[in-house]
């Protein structure tokens, strides 16, 4: 077992994983396919806020937040009470059979809080991938066009069309083809890896020229229904574009009558210090996809868009049996209350603390090649050499694993799997945050600060 003397919140009674978790891991191996990945090899007994206790009684600080699904934390009492109350009323009459008010209430709220003062409409599904697939269906129906443009390093889900729009081959696409037709990849600004010392503006203009060239090489703009973009790339490595790029991309879409879809599944609901990341750029999307933190862990997703666009499909052409579950709707209504009660601004405070610590590591360790983030969506990139910027997947993986062993759940990301990302719940207090960052800093010191580790 690791020595964690002086820790206030992390409590390790056993090694990670402990004996009970190891026992369950054996059962998992026997009965569950190997495909579903796991970051920390423990089984959860209970969780609250930013703390998770496993079946062996070990308490960990959660810097992963169920891959960004828990902006309001584990088991927020307001959400728990709302869900319990809903369970006593009805569980799921199915909106397509008999309707219920929470569905309408949540649609009203999302129409209110999403960017833009225009008339909007919203409907609900179960997952981010479903939201993406349905946003594309609606865009094609409204425009009468077939092609969809997404971006290199982008992630939009694991279902067929969403996987086709996703960029990283392994582990998301390898061996799962053929993929959906009429999907095309665009370059996305990655300033840290810009060739030849290009400035940010030069990178933006080069990328925009490449997009114009794709209209000549691959697909004419009059055949393109929509562009779908993550305002900050999530699985792609927390790559943050400039406001100039996003605005110019939107202008390009408007020029050609192409709809602009913002995939806010990971960036939405306060994560970046705004309710939605697109607010940082002053751009109003035509359609927004949402999921993850909308329901505090209750599965629900949403598609919100301009009213005339959303009304393009006819009756029965969009929907799903469990879409807009009453449990998800009442949970989401409470989530919005919590976020508007101060958690959105809290994301900025958290982000400043995280980036300050990451910048310290960056100055100390050449292997920390880049530090970046927006609000509480923060990451650092691990490289073999600061000059070549050769990605270091192996040491990044060791950082993730060792943090888990010491009681902090973090996750990797990036096309090269060399990025460490933080998605801690926004309800985390300063002491918990600093204790978790202490562990990350200690692990980085051992993994990249030791010359023998290079």
Protein architecture, described:
The model has no long low-confidence stretch (mean pLDDT 96). This protein folds into 3 domains: 1-57, no CATH class; 77-338, Type I PLP-dependent aspartate aminotransferase-like (Major domain) (Aspartate Aminotransferase, domain 2); 366-371 and 384-389 and 397-420 and 443-454, no CATH class. The chain has helices at 19-31, 65-68, 77-89, 101-113, 128-143, 160-165, 200-217, 243-256, 307-310, 326-364, 393-405, 430-448, and strands at 44-48, 51-54, 59-62, 120-125, 147-151, 183-186, 224-229, 259-263, 287-290, 301-306, 368-374, 377-382, 408-409, 411-413, 419-422. It is 38% helix and 16% strand. By secondary structure, it is of the alpha/beta class. The chain has a 7-stranded mixed sheet, sandwiched between helices. 50% of the residues are buried. It has 12 helices and 15 strands. Helix 4 packs parallel to helix 10 (326-364) and helix 10 crosses helix 12.
Feature tags:
EC 2.6.1.22; seven-stranded mixed sheet; (S)-3-amino-2-methylpropionate transaminase; PyrdxlP-dep_Trfase; 4-aminobutyrate:2-oxoglutarate transaminase activity; Aspartate Aminotransferase, domain 2; single chain; alpha/beta; 4NH2But_aminotransferase_bac; 38% helix; 3 domains
